[in-house]
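Fill-in record for Spermidine/putrescine import ATP-binding protein PotA.
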Amino acid sequence: MQGSIAIRDVYKGYGTFTAIDHVSLDVNPGEFLTLLGPSGSGKTTLLNVLAGFIRPDAGSIKVDGVEFLTCPPHKRDIGMVFQNYALFPHMTVAENVAYPLRLRKVSGAERARRVKATLEMVQMDHLGERGIHQLSGGQRQRVALARAMVFEPKIMLMDEPLSALDKNLREHMQLELKRLHARLGMTTIYVTHDQKEALTLSHRIAVLNKGKLAQLDTPDALYERPSNRFVAGFIGESCFFAVEEGADAVTFQGRALKLPKGTALKVSQPRVLMVRPERLQWQVPSDTSAMNRIDAIARDVVYQGDSYHVGLVLSDGSELTARHQKGFREVPVPTPGSAVELWLHAEDTLLVAEGA
Ligand code: ADP
Ligand code: MG
C-alpha cells in the first residue's frame, strides 16, 4: 500500500520563536495518526508544512520515499479538511465535490459517477442539488470530507474538522470518520486538541508540546505508559508527587515503592510519581506484596452519580484525587477530615520524567 510519510528533523521558526522544533516521525501507509497538543503547540503549522502552504527552515518530508518539500502544493496527492469547511458558497453540494475532479480534468460522465459514489459514502447523495447555505454544520462538514476524498488521495490531512460541531454530532462524526477510514484506508494525519477525540480515532498519537514531539505511541501506550509529565497530564487525569530517588530504591512517604517490572533506577533525569485516580483502591488488599500504600486525609467528598469524587491531602500538603465507586459497599465512603489509606498496584505506580 502507498502513502508512507517520513518526517525528518523539520524545523520552522518565526523570528526568534520556534513553532516546530526538530520534529521527526514516520507515518505508516493507511495509518490514522493524530497530532495532539494544546493550542499553539505547532499542530497546524506542521500540517501546513505537509500540505505545502508553509516552507520549513530545515528538514525533509518523504512520501513513499520521494521528497515532498520541493513538490508544489497542487501536485501533492493530498486531500484536506479544515475546521471552517472552506466550501464554495456559490456552488451546490455536488458542484463542490466535483471541483477537485474538474481541476484534474476528469471527464463529465466519470466525474458524475465519482461525485455520486462519494456523496453516498458520506450519506449526502440525496442533497446534491442543495446550496451550501441550506446545510447544517454536520452536513457541511460531510461535504468538505467528500470533496477531500473524491479524487482518492493517498494522504488525507484534517485540521480540527469537527471542533465547530456540538458534542453529540461531533461524537457521531468521529465514529463515521473511523468507519470511513477503515473502509478506504488512506493515510490520515488528523489534528485535534481534544484528547478523547484522539484516543477514539487514532492508531497512533503524536503529542506535541511547544513545537516538540513529546511522545509518539498508540492510545493505549500513551495512557498506560506516558513517558513524561506533560503527556501524563494532557491525556487522562493524573496527580503527581515528589519521590526520593536512592541508589537502590525510590521512596515515597517513607516506604520503598514497588514499581512496574523493568523500571530503571538511578536515572539522571528528575522523576515524579504519577497516580491515575481510577487506579487507586480503597480496600486493604489481602496480599500487599505487589501493592503500594498511600496515606492521606479526605478533604472533600463530592457525589457524582456513578461515583464519589474524593479530594485528599497528603502529609506534605500535596493533593490527590480519587474516585470511590458506588456499589463498593465493603468500604464506606470517607467523611471529610478522616484518615484513609489507599492502595496502588506496582504496575500502576509509574515514575515519569519531570520535564517534557
Ligand atoms: P496549533 O495549531 O497547535 O494551535 P499553530 O501551529 O497554529 O498551533 O501555531 C504554533 C505557534 O506558532 C503559535 O504560538 C503561533 O502563534 C505561532 N505562529 C503560527 N503562525 C505564525 C506566523 N505566521 N507568525 C508568527 N508566529 C506564528
Ligand atoms: Mg491549529
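KEY FINDING: The chain has a mean pLDDT of 93.
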